[in-house]
Design brief:
The chain is mainly β. It has a single domain, classed as Porin (Beta Barrel), CATH 2.40.160.20. The chain is built from 1 helix and 9 strands; from the N terminus they run H-E-E-E-E-E-E-E-E-E. The chain starts with a helix and ends with a strand.
């Protein structure tokens, strides 16, 4: 039901958008705590953008984003369906600053060690939230951007039997570099 409500929210945005496009890119994510290190992966999806003024544009995206972290003997993978809502402030016609927020719905999660995977989705909260900041370049139908997603909520449910390492609060951070193509 939550997925349906989220998708219905996107319909009015995409129907009135001045720019629609596809985007994909590289992600490098981590979880808070000393036991984790950065995990390289990817994200892919589409975006809608419309102007609020000549220099300010609002964009919404729907992305599949694989995130996680490396641990000493394996890795943690968390797949999200993410919905960023961003304000793009254009200093020049081709250069913009992005600020906003993002909500992610966990679609799957696993801990992997020595080729063996364990489903950990039930140990995670179903939703993650992040603050987003970045910089982008807009060249006609091509957009390149880099941004940082800073997790603001604990993603792990309280569980004394949890088998993955954690600090008091486990948040996610992600660096994303994207290439987008405007299709309308």
């Amino acid at each position: 039901m939550k997925k349906l409500v989220g998708l219905l929210f996107l319909i009015p945005i995409t129907s009135s958008a001045q720019k629609l496009g596809l985007k994909a890119g590289w992600s490098n994510s981590d979880l808070s705590g000393d036991a984790y290190s950065y995990y390289p992966s990817y994200h892919i999806g589409f975006f809608a953008q419309f102007s609020l003024s000549e220099n300010i544009k609002l964009s919404s995206e729907l992305l599949f984003s694989r995130q996680g972290a490396k641990v000493i003997d394996g890795e943690v993978r968390i797949d999200y369906l993410s919905l960023p809502l961003l304000v793009n402030i254009y200093e020049y016609k081709w250069l913009f600053l992005q600020i906003g927020g993002q909500v992610g719905l966990v679609t799957s999660a696993g801990a992997y060690s020595n080729g063996v995977g364990t489903d950990i989705k039930s140990s995670l909260k179903p939703i993650d939230a992040s603050l987003v900041g970045g910089l982008g370049f807009h060249f006609d139908r091509i957009i390149v951007n880099a941004r940082y997603n800073w997790g603001i909520i604990d993603i792990i449910k309280s569980n004394p039997n949890l088998t993955i390492a954690r600090s008091n609060i486990t948040t996610s951070t992600t660096i994303q570099i994207s290439l987008a193509v405007v299709i309308n």
